[in-house]
Design goal:
Blueprint (H helix, E strand, L loop, with lengths): L13 H14 L23 E6 L4 E5 L5 E2 L4 H13 L1 H7 L27 H9 L6 H16 L7 H10 L1 H12 L7 H12 L2 E2 L1 H12 L14 H14 L5 H7 L4 E3 L4 E6 L3 E6 L10 H14 L14 E6 L7 E2 L2 H10 L3 E10 L1 H14 L5 E12 L1 H15 L4 E5 L8 H9 L3 H4 E2 L2 H16 L21 H8 L3 E5 L4 E3 L7 E7 L2 E8 L5 E9 L4 E2 L3 H4 L6 E4 L3 E7 H10 L1 H30 L16 H7 L40 H9 L20
Parallel strand pairs: 9-18, 10-11, 11-12, 12-13
Antiparallel strand pairs: 1-2, 1-7, 3-4, 5-6, 6-7, 8-10, 14-21, 15-20, 16-19, 16-21, 17-18, 17-20
Helix pairs in contact: 2-3, 2-4, 2-5, 2-10, 4-7, 4-8, 5-8, 5-9, 6-8, 7-8, 13-18, 14-15, 15-23, 21-22, 22-24
Bound molecules: glutamine.
Length: about 725
C-alpha cells in the first residue's frame, strides 16, 4: 500500500480540516473494488490515489489527500450537460427527447424507452448521448467549445480534454456505439452517431481534480452560481430538475439504496470521481479509482455516507424551523416612536396604543415560516388596527412569502386593518413586494424606511382619528405644558417675551455646539432632533433622535444650564415656533420668582414622566413571553384559505386608506398583550430619546414676525 503523506495533510487547520483528515485516514485503509479497465487508459491509474474536497456555497474549499490530482470526469459530466440542455431548450423540449425515469440498470445498459421514443434518463449513457446531440455550435469544434464552456463555468476555471483517455475510449467504446446506433434506428437521435459519440467521449474525457468536482457540486448547491467566481453557470429554475434526476438516476441501479442511506443528489464516474450536493450548503467531490460492482468509487461512497451520517445531511431531513420567524411582538401601548408628544397625545396613545402591533420578523421567509407569520398577524388583527412588520432581520424571502403577504394585505384591507412595513427595501429579499406596492400606489402609506417612522405614522393616524382635529396650530400660552399652572397675570408677562419664528423645510433651527440662549415651543409643523455621527470612513451619518410636533417644547434645558446645544434641530416642513430668550426669562424670574419656579416644576414633571415611560419601555422590551406561546382562543380565520379561493381574483386596493376614525370605539385594547423578547437588544426608546431632545437648545436665527400667534390665555 502506498504510504505517501497526502498533499496538504500538514496544511490542515480548523475543525473541518481536522475532520476530513481523520476521515481520509480511516477510509484510505479500504482497498476493496477494482479499477475500470474497459477503457484501457484508465487502467494505468494508481489505485491508491484518494482525495476529498468539500466546497461551501460561500466559496470555502476544504481539501485533503490527492485533491489536486486530475483525472477524467467521465459520467459526472452528464449532470452538467443535462443542465445545459435545459437552459438552452427548456424543460418541455428536453423532456420530449430524454425521460426522467430510473432504469434500474447499469450505466451502459442498452435499454430504451420505446413507448415514449426516448432514452430513460440523462444519467445513463443513452440519455447522455441524446443530450450531447443537443449541444449547440456551427462546427464540431464550436460544439466542443460549448461543452467545455458549460463545464468550465461550473468549475470556475478552464477545463480541458485528456487526449489519451479520449483516444482510448474512441478506440474501444463499441458498446456506446451500439447504443447510439440503436437510438438512431428508433428515431431518438437524428445526427450521425459518430459525431454525437465524439462529443460524448470528449465530455467524459474532461480532466478535473476532486477540488474542481466539489466546486462544481457547490455551484448546484448555490442555486447555479459558482461560489468562487460569482458567475452563473445555470439558471436557478433548472437546478431542481438536474438534482432530481441525479437523486433518482445519478447512481444508476444503486440510486435507490444511495438515496435511502446517504440522501444526497449525486453522480459518479468510472474514473473514480463522485459529486454529491447538499442544496444551500455544500458540494462534495471525492476521487478514488477502485470501483464497486455498480461502477462507483468504493471509497467515494464510504466518504459520502460518513459525511452524511456525521453531519445529518440527508436532504429529506428537515433543517428548517418555521417557528423562529417571529423574533418579538410589541404593542404600541408600550413602545413608542421617537416623536415627542404632548401629554394629551401621550394619554391617548396610552389608552389606544394597543391598536398598533409591531412584529420583529427574522430569518428566512418561505412558505412554512410566512404561513406562521400570516396566521399570527391575522390573530393580532382581531384587536390591532395597524400591524407593523419590522423586516430588518429578514435575510431571505421567496415567491411564496411575497405571495402570502400580498394576499394578507388584501385580506386585512377588507377588514379595515393595515399592514405596515419597515425595512422593506427594493433591493432587499422582499424587493419585488416593494415594487408591487409602489405599482399599486399604496407604498407611501405602507412602506417606511425605519420602524420608528412606521410607528410614528401609525401613532399619527390614531391621534388624528381620536382627537378633534380643529385648528391645532394655535396655542395660547396657558395651553402649553411648560407654562401650565401659571395665573393669567404671569402669562401676560410672558406674552410680552414671545418671539414668533418661521422656518422653511430643511432649515436648521438649532445647531449642535451653539450657545443655548433661546428655548422653543413648536406651534405648527414638526421638527427633527438629530445627531451627526462620523462613520469609519469619515463621512457623516445622521441619526434621527426624536421628532416634535405642535405644543412640544425644546431647548428648555438652557434655562437650567445655559450651556451649548447637544444636537441639531431641523424643520421637517414649514415650521412655526414660539421662541423665548433664556436671558429675558431669567430676568423676569428675578422679579417674578413664581414664573420661573412653575416652569421648572413643569419641566421636572415632564422629565420624570418620560423617565418612567422609558423604564416601562425597557421593561416591555426585556420581558419576554412569546405571544404565540399563549395563543388566544378565537374563531378560525384563514387568509390562506381565502387567498387560495380567490387566487386569480384581481386585488382591490384603494390608495386612500379609510381612517380608523370610521369606527373609533370599535377596538380599544382588549387587555395587555404579552410582549416577547428573549435576548433583546434595546433600541433607543422613544422616552429615552426624548431626554436627548430636551437637552437640545437653540441659537440665533432669523426672527420673523409674519405670524401672530394667539397669545392670550384661553
Ligand atoms: N465514458 C464512460 C462510458 O461511456 C462513462 C461511464 C461512466 O463514467 N459511468 O462508458
Amino acid at each position: 500500500m502506498d504510504t505517501r503523506v497526502p498533499d496538504n495533510i500538514l496544511a490542515s487547520v480548523g475543525p473541518i480540516d481536522h475532520y476530513l483528515t481523520a476521515l481520509h485516514g480511516r477510509i484510505a485503509g479500504v482497498t476493496d473494488g477494482e479499477i475500470a479497465t474497459y477503457i484501457p487508459e484508465l487502467a494505468k491509474v494508481d489505485p491508491e490515489l484518494f482525495g476529498i474536497a468539500i466546497a461551501t456555497v460561500d466559496g470555502k474549499v476544504y481539501t485533503v489527500g490527492d485533491s489536486s490530482y486530475s483525472f477524467t470526469i467521465q459520467s459526472i459530466s452528464k449532470a452538467f450537460v443535462y443542465g445545459y440542455t435545459l437552459a438552452e431548450y427548456g424543460r418541455d423540449y428536453v423532456l420530449s427527447r430524454i425521460g426522467v425515469e430510473p432504469t434500474g440498470e447499469a450505466f451502459n445498459s442498452i435499454i430504451l424507452d420505446e413507448v415514449h421514443k426516448r432514452p430513460f434518463n440523462p444519467m445513463v449513457n443513452a440519455g447522455a448521448m441524446a443530450a450531447a446531440e443537443l449541444i449547440k455550435g456551427d462546427t464540431p469544434e464550436a460544439r466542443i467549445a460549448t461543452m467545455l464552456g458549460a463545464l468550465s463555468r461550473f468549475a470556475g476555471r478552464s477545463l480541458h480534454v485528456d487526449e489519451s483517455v479520449l483516444r482510448s475510449e474512441q478506440a474501444t467504446g463499441h458498446r456506446n456505439r451500439a447504443i447510439a446506433y440503436m437510438m438512431l434506428n428508433s428515431g431518438m437521435i437524428h445526427s450521425p452517431p459518430e459525431t454525437i459519440l465524439d462529443i460524448y467521449f470528449r465530455q467524459c474525457s474532461v480532466r478535473v481534480t476532486c477540488a474542481d468536482l466539489a466546486v462544481m457540486a457547490a455551484t448546484f448547491a448555490n442555486d447555479g452560481v459558482n461560489p468562487l467566481t460569482g458567475e452563473r453557470a445555470l439558471a436557478r429554475e433548472y437546478i431542481q430538475d438536474v438534482l432530481t434526476v441525479m437523486n433518482s438516476c445519478g447512481m444508476y441501479n444503486y440510486a435507490g439504496q444511495w438515496s435511502y442511506e446517504i440522501g444526497m443528489p449525486a453522480k459518479s464516474g468510472v474514473a473514480g470521481g463522485i459529486i454529491a450536493v447538499i442544496p444551500g450548503q455544500i458540494g462534495i467531490g471525492v476521487f478514488s479509482p477502485r470501483l464497486d460492482a455498480h461502477g462507483h468509487s468504493v471509497r467515494g461512497v464510504r466518504v459520502c455516507r460518513e459525511i452524511s451520517e456525521t453531519f445529518g445531511l440527508h436532504v429529506f431531513r428537515n433543517h428548517t424551523n418555521s417557528g423562529a420567524i417571529i423574533r418579538r411582538e410589541l404593542s404600541g401601548a408600550v413602545v413608542r416612536s421617537k416623536r415627542m408628544r404632548t401629554p394629551k397625545e401621550r394619554a391617548l396613545l396610552d389608552e389606544r396604543g394597543e391598536l398598533i402591533s409591531l412584529i420583529e420578523v427574522q430569518g428566512g421567509m418561505f412558505f412554512g415560516s410566512t404561513e406562521r407569520l400570516v396566521r399570527r398577524i391575522d390573530a393580532l388583527a382581531a384587536d390591532a388596527e395597524f400591524v407593523i412588520l419590522d423586516l430588518r432581520r429578514v435575510h431571505d424571502a421567496d415567491q411564496a412569502a411575497r405571495r402570502l403577504l400580498l394576499d394578507l394585505i388584501e385580506w386585512l384591507h377588507e377588514r379595515d386593518r393595515r399592514l405596515i412595513f419597515a425595512h422593506l427595501s427594493p433591493d432587499g429579499p422582499l424587493g419585488p413586494l416593494h415594487i408591487e406596492l409602489i405599482a399599486r400606489g399604496v407604498a407611501d402609506q405602507m412602506v417606511f424606511e425605519h420602524r420608528d417612522q412606521a410607528l410614528e405614522w401609525c401613532e399619527n393616524q390614531l391621534i388624528s382619528a381620536f382627537t378633534d382635529t380643529s385648528d391645532r396650530t394655535k396655542f395660547s400660552l396657558g395651553q402649553l405644558d411648560i407654562f401650565a399652572g401659571l395665573p393669567r397675570d404671569d402669562l401676560r408677562i410672558l406674552e410680552g417675551l414671545v418671539r414668533p419664528m418661521v422656518f422653511e423645510p430643511g432649515q436648521t433651527i438649532v445647531a449642535e455646539g451653539d450657545e443655548a440662549n433661546l428655548f422653543f415651543v413648536v406651534a405648527r409643523g414638526t421638527v427633527t432632533v438629530q445627531l451627526r455621527l462620523k462613520t469609519e470612513n469619515d463621512s457623516e451619518r445622521i441619526v434621527r433622535v426624536a421628532s416634535l410636533g405642535p405644543g412640544v417644547s425644546f431647548g428648555e434645558m438652557a434655562l437650567l444650564d445655559g450651556g451649548h446645544r447637544s444636537a441639531d434641530v431641523v424643520a421637517d416642513d414649514r415650521v412655526v415656533c414660539y421662541g423665548f430668550s433664556v436671558e429675558e426669562l431669567r430676568e423676569v424670574g428675578q422679579s417674578h420668582p413664581r414664573i420661573f419656579t412653575t416652569i421648572l416644576g413643569n419641566m421636572m414633571r415632564d422629565f420624570s414622566e418620560r423617565l418612567r415611560r422609558a423604564n416601562d419601555e425597557i421593561r416591555a422590551l426585556r420581558s419576554s413571553r412569546a405571544a404565540q406561546r399563549r395563543p388566544k382562543k378565537r374563531r378560525m380565520r384563514a387568509p390562506m384559505a381565502a387567498a387560495s379561493a380567490s387566487a386569480s381574483a384581481a386585488m382591490r386596493f384603494s390608495s386612500a386608506w379609510r381612517p380608523a376614525s370610521t369606527s373609533p370605539k370599535r377596538s380599544i385594547s382588549s387587555g395587555a398583550r404579552a410582549n416577547m423578547s428573549s435576548n433583546a437588544t434595546l433600541p433607543i426608546s422613544s422616552a429615552a430619546t426624548s431626554l436627548w431632545a430636551i437637552a437640545v437648545a437653540v441659537r440665533r436665527m432669523p426672527v420673523k414676525s409674519d405670524i401672530s400667534p394667539t397669545m392670550s390665555p384661553a
